[in-house]
Amino acid sequence: MLVNGRVWRFGDDLNTDVIHPPQFFSLDDEKVKRGLFHGLDPDIQPRLCPGDVLVGGRNFGCGSSRETSVRSLKLNGIGAIIAVDFARIFFRNCTNNGIPCLALARPEDLGRLKHQQAVEVNTVEAHVVTDAGLSIRLEPPGLFVQRIWQAGGLLSLLPDVHTRESN
Question: Where residue 125 sits, what CATH number does that domain have?
Answer without folding.
Answer: 3.20.19.10
